[in-house]
Structures are given as structure tokens and as C-alpha cells.
Amino acid sequence: MNEIRQEEYEIQNFVNEVLIPSFPNWTLKSFGTFKKVNSKANTFFGEASKTQIFEGTPYQYIGNCQFLHFTSLISLKAILDCGWLRMSEFGNLSDNTEFVYAASSVFGGELEFSKVDLDSIKETLFSLSACEVSQENNIDPYLWNVYGDQGKGVSIEYEFSNFKVYDYLFGNVRYGIESLDLLKEVFHNFNIYKKSNRGIYPTNFLNLISDILVFHKAGQFKSEKEVRLFWRSEKSSWEKHEKFLIYKDFNTIQEVRYFAKLFLKGRNPFFANGDVSDVMKNEILGVIPQVEIKKITLGSNISIGKKLDILDLLNELKKKHNYEYSIFHLNADSEIRPFFKLVK
Question: Looking at the domain assignment, is residue 343 inside a domain?
């Protein structure tokens, strides 16, 4: 067996013994090794494949593939005008323990981040938070109050045009200490493997399993019932993002942060050229998912008079951009009803 094949064999052996017992479909998207001249590599660095990593685990999303995004009226208009939803970098999320919650809970004192390192890592991680469409979630007071501008905003019901995409990860967010069992098992296996000197091991173990870490939150957020779309775009700490999907903007507390674009149906600039073939469109959608807004529901704390004005504007935007959403409203009796003007 030549040297390269021996390294590949040992790396796969690490995956088999440390990761696959907890995540049966784990595979590596890429890997590399560090070694001195004329010496055998004893460490590697790798990146997990996102295509099937959650299958057969509690992180796997199994549902109706219809999702809700609660937001303000101002944000809704910005979404409809620009043609995309914003995926937020992790440094912009309201819970500042995002990403490190699971790592610190599992690794304890063995995990140390400087603030500079942590901020740099968070700039490469992007997520879109949502919850599944259901009667309970559609009228949930907590979701409307916290994310729907205290009932003065909207809920957006949407679907993904291609639910299985190559470079994104979608799954259930898990809450609290009791949800960390699989990660604890992975860390236990890692320690045994490393201490036994059985073969090559990763120098970037934390980064290797970070696709799992980002799907954990503290138990106090359990009522959010979040499912999450996750995307990573690597860069060095001293660099700026250069991908056209990523841009800088202000957040709600006047900070400048990175955001990533998730295009609405019909607004992907790749499709602006009428010469793009159906085959090419399918290939693009396999890499960059597209969102189709099916329904917009106005919150119960908007007066009827204001709702009528909002209805007019939403219909104007619908016609202007060829959207196909329906407009509903949540009334004072927690009922969601179609919303339209009576024409005399």
C-alpha cells in the first residue's frame, strides 16, 4: 500500500471509529495532511460533507417542508424589494452563546477561544432560522411577540425550490444539556483514539464537527422550535468575504455585519439571462437554494385600517415582481383568515 493510500485508509479509520458510531452517514468532503519531509503524517485537517450528515439522527428534519419566518413590516418590504432573504452570520444572532454552547458544554476546560478567534469563526458561519408551518406555530404568541414585532409584523410562509442542496445543511436545532449525548459520544471516542496512538487524527477537530455544534442552543430557547438552514463560507481572519452571495449591512442594533443572500423565486440573477437552459437552472438550484413565498400573514396587533393600506402595498409588490403569494391576517381571536378588500 503506497503512502497516500495508507493516509487515506487511516483517515477513514478515524471516521469509522470516532464519528460513524454517532453519525452513521458521516463522510469527509475534503481533507489534507501535515507532515515533515521523509516522515509519516500523523495529523490531518478535514471538512465534513453536508449531503447526508444528519440522516438517521435526531438532527434530521422530517416534516412537511413548509416553513415560517417571522419578521417586521419594514423587513418584509426590504425582502420583497431586493429579492432575497438574509442569512445572518453567527456574530449577528441574538443569542451570543451560539456555536460555543455545545462545544463548551461538551469539551469544558479543554476548549478555549480568544474573542478575536471566536469573532473570526462566526463571520464564516451563516444561518436562516425558521420553524415548521403548523396550526400551533402559526398563532404561537411567543413567536409573534419575539420575532413578529410584537404582533405588529408578519409571518412569511415559504418553501425551498430544491430541498436537498449540495453545500447547505438543514436540520432540527436541539436544546439543552440533554441533547448533547451524541456529541459527548464523539468526544469520548476522539479522546480514546488520540490517546491510544492508533493512527492519524485531525488537528482541526472542533472545526471538523462544527456543522453539528451550530445546531445546539441552551434549553431556555426551546420554545422557538427552530429548524435551521446553515451555510459556511471560509475566509481568513484578516480577509473580507468576496463571494457575490455575501454582503455587509446594518443589523437592528446599528452594527455592521455580514449577511448571505437566499434568493426568492424568480429573483436569482443567474436566471436574468433568458438564454439559461433548464439543465443549467437545475444545476444552479442544486448549489444555491431558492425560496418561494407562498403566504404572508399580517399580525393581530395591526389595526384593520392599517392592514388595508398594507394589503394595497403588498399587492403592488406582488404584481411588480411576479410573486405568487396569498395574503392572510391573524385576527383578535387567534384565527388566520384570508385578507382582501371588498369591491363595490
Answer: no
Q: Which residues pair with 96 in a beta bridge?
A: none
Whether the CB-CB separation of 208 and 23 falls below 8 Å is answered with no
Same-domain status, 41 and 118: no
Q: What is the pTM of this model?
A: 0.87
Residue 222 near residue 142 (C-beta atoms within 8 A): no
CB-side neighbour CA atoms (13 Å) of 286: 7
* Nearest Cα residue to 183 out of 106, 288, 70, 109: 106
Is the domain of 23 the same as that of 147? no
Same domain, 186 and 293: no
Q: Which three cell numbers stand for residue 45?
A: 485537517
* Domains held by the chain: number: 2
Does residue 344 lie within any of the structural domains? no
Whole-angstrom distance between the N-terminal and C-terminal Cα of the chain? 83
Compute the distance between CA of residue 71 and CA of residue 254 in angstroms, rounded to an integer.
17
- Write out pLDDT tens, residues 265-297: 989 887 776 667 777 777 777 778 889 999 999
